[in-house]
């Protein structure tokens, strides 16, 4: 039996330790709050500097406009007109350049109280790319009646595609990454549809074979290798970095992986392990974490994380399964698959800011828009075997189209 005096001494030490821990945490919190205030003040200073720069450039622009007007009104001699035209052309070029600069520098920090609240609640601020679309922005999907731009042709040359599958947009640069499936590579295009570069063709580490799904997060490009049963990881410029998985049914092994998604909060990687009928999670350091919903699916083909939910597109009926992202509990299943159902054959989908679901139908050639409850609210298309779909920050819908065209379309 314990000595009463020893018991009292033990509890006294525990209480003293608790007091010390509370004190240290209070000091830490005070320090973090002080640093938070310093960072917010720095942000405000940067904002003011940019605003002053814009005001200065606006003054210069007005002076140039005035100078241009004076030259046009006062130089009327025929011998001086070539000089007049040359000076005016140079002024107009300078004004054009300044307007572009001023548009790019239009940076504002608003709702300071909201920023403080978010820092306090979340602990950090991170650029997220989960939905591929700016929060609060709206897509007027009812106006998507024809593509605004169609690029590329069928082939194996630069900018040509052969049976493209996945597509992803880098929100920071607006570059478009396409999994050029039958050419065994990824091709990168500008937001205007211009070909930029290709990667994944070089022999050795990082060489692709039938890439399928593609995802961009935190400066990395993740590409699923359907036939090679792995995920290849590259830098945004196409430099190979690492690999996840190998062929098999065990933990961390893959069988015909389709698409994947990144948890933008902690960097975890969710892979549709299609042939094994499950989802696998890997850490941002690429180590295996866990297996989810083994044999719950018929064949999971695409996955997205948004609004505290995990959306999984499956070959079952109903085909869209929604889970709680915190405890992975099933919430509900929506959207019927089948020739006489809501969709016939779908492999890819994406989400907008309102959690509307944009889904391509490979068989019918249509893009269907569902609300978060699975109610069909719009459809458009008439495409030929559309597969990958993504949204960019400008409200455009990016689609890869197969069969005769083998093209990239922007709606």
Automatic annotation (TrEMBL):
Provide the GO biological process annotations.
Answer: proteasome-mediated ubiquitin-dependent protein catabolic process; protein polyubiquitination
Pfam family for this entry, one = NHL
Q: Which UniProt keywords apply?
A: Repeat
Name the CDD domains for this protein: NHL
| Stored InterPro entries | 6-blade_b-propeller_TolB-like, NHL_repeat, TRIM-NHL_E3_ligases
Under Gene Ontology molecular function, one entry of this record is: ubiquitin protein ligase activity
Establish whether keyword Repeat is in the entry: yes
Task: From the UniProt record, list the NHL repeat ranges.
Answer: 148-192, 241-285
Protein name (Swiss-Prot/TrEMBL):
Uncharacterized protein
């Amino acid at each position: 039996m314990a000595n009463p005096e020893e018991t009292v001494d033990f509890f006294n030490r525990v209480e003293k330790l608790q007091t010390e821990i509370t004190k240290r945490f209070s000091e830490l919190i005070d320090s973090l709050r002080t640093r938070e205030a310093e960072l917010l003040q720095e942000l405000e200073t940067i904002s003011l500097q940019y605003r002053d720069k814009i005001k200065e450039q606006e003054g210069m622009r007005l002076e140039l406009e005035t100078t241009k007007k004076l030259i046009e009104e006062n130089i009327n001699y025929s011998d001086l007109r070539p000089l007049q035209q040359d000076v005016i052309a140079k002024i107009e070029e300078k004004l054009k350049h300044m307007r572009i600069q001023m548009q790019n520098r239009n940076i504002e920090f608003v709702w300071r109280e909201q920023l403080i609240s978010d820092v306090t609640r979340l602990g950090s601020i991170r650029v997220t790319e989960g939905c591929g679309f700016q929060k609060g922005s709206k897509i007027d999907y009812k106006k998507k009646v024809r593509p605004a731009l169609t690029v590329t042709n069928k082939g194996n040359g630069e900018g040509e595609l052969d049976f493209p599958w996945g597509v992803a947009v880098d929100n920071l640069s607006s570059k478009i990454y396409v999994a050029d499936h039958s050419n065994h590579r990824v091709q990168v295009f500008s937001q205007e549809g211009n070909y930029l570069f290709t990667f994944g063709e070089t022999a050795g580490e990082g060489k692709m074979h039938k890439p399928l799904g593609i995802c961009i997060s935190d400066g990395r490009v993740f590409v699923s290798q359907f036939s090679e049963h792995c995920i290849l990881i590259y830098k945004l410029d196409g430099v190979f970095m690492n690999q996840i998985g190998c062929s098999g049914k065990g933990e961390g092994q893959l069988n015909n992986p389709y698409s994947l998604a990144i948890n933008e909060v902690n960097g975890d990687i969710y892979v549709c392990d299609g042939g094994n009928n499950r989802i696998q999670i890997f850490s941002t350091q690429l180590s295996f974490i866990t297996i989810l919903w083994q044999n719950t699916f018929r064949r999971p083909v695409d996955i997205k994380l948004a609004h505290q939910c995990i959306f999984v597109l499956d070959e079952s009926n109903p085909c869209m399964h929604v889970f709680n992202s915190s405890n992975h509990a099933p919430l509900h299943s929506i959207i019927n698959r089948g020739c006489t159902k809501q969709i016939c054959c779908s492999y890819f989908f994406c989400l907008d800011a309102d959690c509307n679901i944009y889904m391509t139908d490979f068989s019918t050639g249509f893009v269907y828009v569902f609300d978060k409850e699975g109610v069909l609210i719009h459809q458009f298309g008439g495409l030929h075997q559309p597969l990958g779909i993504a949204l960019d920050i400008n409200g455009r819908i990016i689609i890869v189209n197969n069969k005769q065209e083998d093209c990239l379309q922007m709606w």
